[in-house]
Amino acid sequence: MKLEDLKKIREKMEKETNLREGKGRIKAVVGMGTCGIAAGAREVLSALLDEISKRNITDIIITQSGCRGLCDREPIVDIYEEGKEMITYGNLTPEKARRIVAEHFVNGNIVKDLLVSSK
Amino acid sequence: MAKIYNLLLCAGASCISSGGYSFRDKLVEELKKHNIENMVNIVETGCVGICELGPVVIVYPDGVFYKKLKPEDAKDIVEEHLLKGRVVGRLLYKEKDSEKIVQQASQIPFFQKQLKIVLRNCGIINPESLEEYIGKDGYSALAKVLTEMKPEDVIKEIKDSGLRGRGGAGFPTGLKWELVRNSKGGEKYVICNADEGDPGAFMDRSVLEGDPFSVIEAMTIAGYAVGAKQGYIYVRAEYPLAIKRLRSAIKKAYEENLLGKNIFGQNFDFDLEIRVGAGAFVCGEETALMHSVEGQRGTPSPKPPFPADRGLFGKPTLINNVETYANVCQIILKGSKWFSSIGTEKSKGTKVFALAGAINNTGLVEVPMGTTLKEMVYEIGGGLPNDKKFKAAQIGGPSGGCIPEEYIDTPLDYESVKKLGTIIGSGGLIVMSEDTCMVDLAKYFLEFTQDESCGKCPSCRIGTKKMLEILNRISKGRAKVEELDLLIHLGEQISKTALCGLGQTAPNPVLSTLKYFKDEYLEHINEKKCRAGVCFKKKK
User: Fold this and answer.
1) B85 and B215 housed in the same domain
2) Which of B64, B293, B495, B530 has its Cα between 20 and 30 A from that of A58?
3) Quick one: pLDDT band at residue B540, thresholds 50, 70, 90?
4) Are residues B302 and B364 in the same domain?
5) Contact B264 A21 (CB under 8 A)
6) pLDDT at B111
7) Which of B433, B461, B492 is the last residue of a domain?
8) Interchain proximity A13–B135, CB inside 8 Å
9) Its domain of life (chain A) (predicted)?
10) What CATH number has the domain bearing residue B24?
11) Is B430 part of the contact surface with chain A (CB cutoff 8 Å)?
12) CA-CA distance, B499 to B458, in Å (whole number)?
C-alpha cells in the first residue's frame, strides 16, 4: 500500500462509516406506515436507493419511519438538511423519487411541484 | 446498492457466548425471507461494552439500541423496524429507577460518562476489515511517523503526552521507549503483553477482539521509534477469538505491505508474530513472558537487567501492554497536548476498567483518569443489584487491594489509589456488597496466586502457602489472634523479598482487607462468626 492508496481508502470509508453513525448531508425519511406501503412507499424507497447508488452518491442517508399522519398524500418523503427547514414531498412515484435525487440531492434545487409543504 | 440500515452487531466474546450468533443467523434468514438483504448491512463489531445486556445490536442511522436479543426477536426487528421503520419498544433499554425507556445508545448513562480513546473503534467497526479501520484514521499515524517524524520525535511526543503503562505498574511509556532506543546491543525487539490473567479482567481481550489493527499499527510505530524490526504479541491461549482476529489482521497487514519490507515505500521493515501462551498467570510478568517466547520455561528472572537492556534473546526489548499500545496512534494523530489535557496531574488519558461483581451494568468501561469510584459504581455501573449496600471494591485483581465504602469518593488514578494500599493494575474492578466476606475474598485471591506461583523463589512458594494456611484456619474459626500479626509480618516480608511482581504483590489482598476490615477477621477468630454468612456453613 502506498500513501496515496491510504488516502483514497480513507476518503471512501470515512463517508461510509459516517453514514453508519447517522452523519450525512441530507437525511431522507420515507413514511412506511400501512397507508404508505399501500400507496407504493416501498417502490419509492427502492427507487431512491437505486438512484443514489447509480449516481454513486455517498453522503445521503435514506431511512424510513412509521405513519406521518398525512395518509392521503402518501407516499411521503421528509427531507432533513442541516441548517434548513424540513420539507416534505408527497404523492410520490418511483419516477418522481428519481427526480428528487437528481434535482434536489445533486443540484440542490427543491422540486417545487412535488412539495406537500415547506414546514 | 445503497443500504438503508447498518446493523452493528456486537461480536465480542460475551455477546457471542450469550447467543449473539444464533440471533444473527435468524436475522439473516428473516432478511432473506422478506427479500431486503440488499438494504441492510450487518457489521459484526468488537465489544460494545455493556456485556450485561448482551447480545446487543445498534441500528443506524438512528442509533437505536436493542438488548438481550433472542433468535425469535429477529422477526420483529425485521418486520417492524427494518421493513416499516417502527422501533420495537419491548427490546429497548429501560432505566432502572425511572423505568424510562431509552431508545438511543448515546442516551444510556452507562455510555454517557465514558470517554473512548482505547476503545474508540470497539463496537463501531468490523475488526477484521482493514478498510474500515483506515476509514477511522487507521494507519494515518504510521504514515505520519514514517514520512514526517524522526524516531526521536516519536519518543518525545509519547513522553510529552504523559502516557504511563496500563499493565499495572504505571511506568512512563515514553521513557521506556527512550531507554530501549538508547540501549546498545544490535538487534532489538518489540513485545506486546497480551497475557491478561487477572480474574475478572478482560480489557485487553476486548481491544484485541474489537480493534486488532490499532495494536498492530502502534507496535509498528514503536518498532520504528526504538529501532526494532521484529515484534511479538504474546496472547494467552484462553483467548481464541482474539487470536483469530489478530491472525487475520496481521495477514491483511502483510498483504497490503503495512507489515514486512519497506512499509509505505520507506526504508523501514517490521515483522510481527503471535506467540500463544499456555495459560500460566506468571507469564504476564515480563521476564517470564520473554522466557516463554524464547521457548524456555515461563519463570521470571531477577531485574536488573531490565528488558530495555537485556530482554528477549538477551537483546534490548520494549515490552508494553495491549492497552498502552492502543493509546499510541491517537497520541501521534491528535498530539501530546490533547492527550495530556485528559486525566489528572500525574495520570494522563483514560483507563479501561472491567466492571464485575455485585453491580448492575457489568461490562467494559473507559473513563478519564481521576473519575471517582462512586461515579463508577453508581452512575456508570448503575448501582448494586437488589439495592444491596456497597461494601468495597477490589481493584487490580490478585495484585491489588480493596477500597472500602468510606473512601468511595477516591479518584481512580495511579497516585490516589496507591495511597489506599492498592493499585490501578490492569483495570479489573470487582464490586462487593454486604454479602461478601472479606476473609473469604482474601482467601480467594491468595488461593489464586498460590496456585499460580511458579515456585522459583521460596518467599513466594512457601510464604504464600503459609499465609493461605492461616487464612484457612481463620475461616474455619481455628486460628489464634496472634496469627494476624504473623500474617502481616509474612505479607510484608514476601512483598520485599519475592523475585517478581507476582510474589511481591500477592499479599496485597490480605494486607488491605486486614487494614480496613480487621474487625471481620477478629469476629471469625473470637466469635466464630461470619457476618456475610459465607464461612462456617454447615456441611450437608
Assistant:
1) no
2) B64
3) low
4) no
5) no
6) 87
7) B433
8) yes
9) Bacteria
10) 3.40.30.10
11) no
12) 9
- Interface predicted TM-score of the whole assembly (ipTM), two decimals: 0.82
Which domains does chain A carry? Answer: 23-117 (3.40.30.10)
- H/E run at residue B173: helix B173-182
How many helices (H) and strands (E) are present in chain A, helices listed first? 4, 5
Contact A32 B83 (CB under 8 A): yes
Contact B6 A19 (CB under 8 A): yes
| Per-residue pLDDT reduced to its tens digit, B152-203 | 999 999 999 999 999 888 999 999 999 999 999 889 999 999 999 888 888 9
pLDDT single digits (tens) B395-429: 998 999 999 999 999 999 999 999 998 999 889 99
Phi, psi dihedral angles at B496 (to 5 degrees): -80, -30
Q: Is residue B117 situated within a structural domain?
A: no
B35 occurs within a structural domain = yes
In A, minimum Cα distance to B144 occurs at A3
C-alpha cell at B356: 464485575
Of A2, A33, A62, the CB nearest to B4: A62
B464 within some domain: yes
Contacts of B267 (CB under 8 A, 6+ apart): none
B290 in the same domain as B161: yes
Q: Are the CB atoms for B45 and B210 separated by under 8 Å? A: yes
Rg of chain B over all Cα atoms, to the nearest angstrom: 24
pLDDT digits (tens, 9 = 90+) for A1-54: 888 999 999 988 887 777 777 678 888 999 988 888 889 998 999 899 899 888
- Same domain, residue pair B323 and B382: no
Contacts of A101 in chain B (CB under 8 A): none
Min Cα distance B10 → chain A (Å) is 15
Average pLDDT on B125-151 reads 95
Distance CA A96, CA B44 (A): 36
B2 in reach of chain A (CB within 8 A): yes
Q: Range of B459's domain?
A: 438-527
